[in-house]
Amino acid sequence: MIKRETIIYAFAFVKTLTAKKIYNSLLLRFSYWWSVIIKNQYHWGYMENLSIEPTNLCNLKCPECPSGNNSMTRSRMFLSEENYRKTINQTFRHLVYLQLYFQGEPFMHPKITDYIKYAVNKNIFTSTSTNGHFLSPESCNKIVNSGLHQIIISIDGTTQKTYEKYRVGGSFVKVISGIKNLQKAKLENKKHHPHIVIQFVVFSTNEHQIQEIKRLAKELGISDLRLKSAQIENYKDGNALMPKNPKFNRYKKNKNENYTLQRKRNFKCFRVWNGSVISANGNLLPCCFDKNGSFKYTEQNNTNINQQWKNKSAKLFRKNVWQSENNYNICKNCTEGLRQTWFKQ
């Protein structure tokens, strides 16, 4: 039986669709498969998915996150309102899905709910992802009234002891309190949104708590719990964070006793075909795996994002990625080609 929350979520998404968006999405897919078949790229349509980074600052010190472990080489900053509005104004007619998140904690941005509201008012299905430490009653009221469609909240443990092994500097109690605040704000404001997703990234430190996170989600009244396999930066020699259950491990040991990413061979990346990322400094990046912004499409003297997405550097990047995923270091740990990274409960 289909859950009521699923119907509401699906209806909210369908309401944001237009004939132009549907046509553009079909054009992207047709050109993708046509290019795969004839083995030559004909890239038609404009981006349908976009991630925008409100900030690359974060309050936590997660060991596998470049923002948390201080391995990020980009300057720490907030996305300007000018860059944000420009991006939305140039893309809203064909944009199907907006993720207000890349690196960092989006709710550290002082204007995040204004940014959400601006995108929602442009009829874009809008989602964000958070570590849940900024969900005060006041903040939750603003979030609910911003019109945000979906919020993903990470809880990687069911006790403080387990939770802080990865979410270094975080408070399990504060996150749980934040979820309750958001639920209460939805009820008091008589809103169905945002749709709340609890994300549980599976590590060796918490894989024994999978049944417990299921019970906790049920107690909180959250119907959408998603387990997620963890991305490990240095995986070739193994890593203590890798879960023992192979189902939740993106990596497998080969004959040489090294670990490799479990993905299909000779796949053609769709991620760079239908979407992109805007970093906090306003640069257009190929995808969310370019965490240091090393392969930006951005051109000086060209502020039109749609044109940048079609420029020479963008075309060359797509061509090289399709020829071999080993052409760029950011592709070597990418989830494209993996059979499954999310496990909905």
Can you put this structure into words, describing what you see?
This protein has 345 residues and is of the alpha/beta class. Helix content is 34%, strand content 14%. Strands 10-9-1-2-3-4-5-6-11 form a 9-stranded mixed beta sheet. A two-stranded antiparallel sheet has the order 7-8. The two termini are 14 Å apart.
- Strands of the widest sheet, in order across it, are 10-9-1-2-3-4-5-6-11
Q: The biggest beta sheet, please?
A: 9 strands, mixed
- Would you identify the regions where 5 or more consecutive residues have pLDDT less than 50? none
Helix content: 25-40%
Oligomer: single chain
Number of helices: 11
Helix-and-strand structural type: alpha/beta
Please give the radius of gyration in angstroms. 20 Å
Distance linking N and C termini: 14 Å
Total E-strand runs: 11
Mean pLDDT: 94
Order of helices and strands: HHEHEHEHEHHEHEEEHEEHHE
How much beta, percentage-wise? Answer: 5-15%
Shape: globular
